[in-house]
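Mods, move this if it's the wrong board.
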Amino acid sequence: MNNFERPDLARGSSGVLLLRRHSLLCLAMALLAVLLGGRDALAQSRESATAGGIYLWVGGGASGYYLQYGQTKNLGITAYFDADTIRRFGIEAEGRWLEFHQTNDIHAETLLVGPRYHFNAGRFQPFVKGLAGLGQFNFPYNYAHGSYFVIAPGGGLDYRLSPRWSVRADFEYQYWPQFTFGPMSSGGATIGVRYLILK
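Not the wrong board. Structure tokens:
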């Protein structure tokens, strides 16, 4: 998807609404997959159900990212939702808003969802993920903005502080294949926390 608009022709509300609609659809599909997977576990014996149990986490953090277009380094906030199983597979959905430390009004937002794989090593939980979704990019001096498809592999490490709280270090590479001026890359890191809301 490549939706490039000049703000003086269209204020961008349609692009933002489209991004939000697609993001909500992705989140709904992820939750549906988790719930359908959990239904089979509930139908089994207690032992096998525990082996495939679902853990729902929410979290947020501070992010620092490099954007190839404009060669800028932006700061922002990230929110994420993880649906994990004891069997090491799960789903992650995240939203990132790189709105701070802008250069010439260049900033980006992404809403992504996809599978993740993790394993436990004591209090540590390394993970890898493969996300995809929509990105919004604001061009210099607010001249234009665009909506694009984004692919984002990444990984990181969660450290369990207590049964419900963890701290996270997350690294992600983003590839924008349909960017207006040719494919663009971005990448960065997020430091944050997450909280177990359901198990």
